[in-house]
Amino acid sequence: MSSQSELEKALKESPYFQGLSQELLSALCQILVLKRLSKGEHLFFEGEKALGFYFIVDGMMKLYKLSPKGKESVIHIFGPGEIFAEVVLAGSEAYPVNAQALTDATLAFFPKANLLNLLKRNPDFGLNLIGLLCVRLKSLLKTIENLTLKEAGERLIAYLWELTEEGKKEEFTLSIPKSQLALLLGITPETLSRIFQRLKEEDIIGVEGKRVRIKDMAKLRSLLS
């Protein structure tokens, strides 16, 4: 995907750019730069100068931090239609995390300087981005709550419940490997496997590869804390 019309369509379908005029969408496409990453390739590392933020056209990206001893902690995993590194809009001069492609990925890069000039001329776009920052803050607070207040099993159940869109979908596909899911939930792969196995034995879910089927939605809902 590289034509302007295709990029405009991708932006328009993202909740972060909904409601923008066609003129503003075209202006955004004029300042963006397409970047393509291979699976496993890093986009930037923690501490590097923050030059702009990114919109995912296709593929999956992981943001993570490393402890002084090298232990990896996944902050978030993003997919198509989502944006990340928007912290630059809040004045951050350096990226606070590492960004790595979980799959081959195509990204739209919005240079900070060009974007700020566009914001000055389009206050409605600024309101959209303020809303985005509020949504991201809410998501971060939820992540902190899950990691600090919930047990391992409760974290996985909450994650599965989100993937059902709060009980609306009985089947879905895990978009990330279970090894990465374990990192995202802050548990070991072995613990993750045990919890999945327990849920299968209790006939709450069925799992075939990355495909998950909820067999007892009411029971899954009752396990939420």
Describe the protein:
By secondary structure, the chain is α+β, with helices and mostly antiparallel strands. The chain has two domains: 143 residues, Sandwich (Jelly Rolls), CATH 2.60.120.10; 71 residues, Winged helix-like DNA-binding domain superfamily/Winged helix DNA-binding domain (Arc Repressor Mutant, subunit A), CATH 1.10.10. The protein contains eight helices and eleven strands. It has a four-stranded antiparallel beta sheet. It has a four-stranded antiparallel beta sheet with strand order 2-7-4-5. The chain has a three-stranded antiparallel beta sheet with strand order 9-11-10. Helix 1 packs across helix 2 and helix 6 packs across helix 7. The longest helix has 27 residues. It is globular and about 55 Å long.
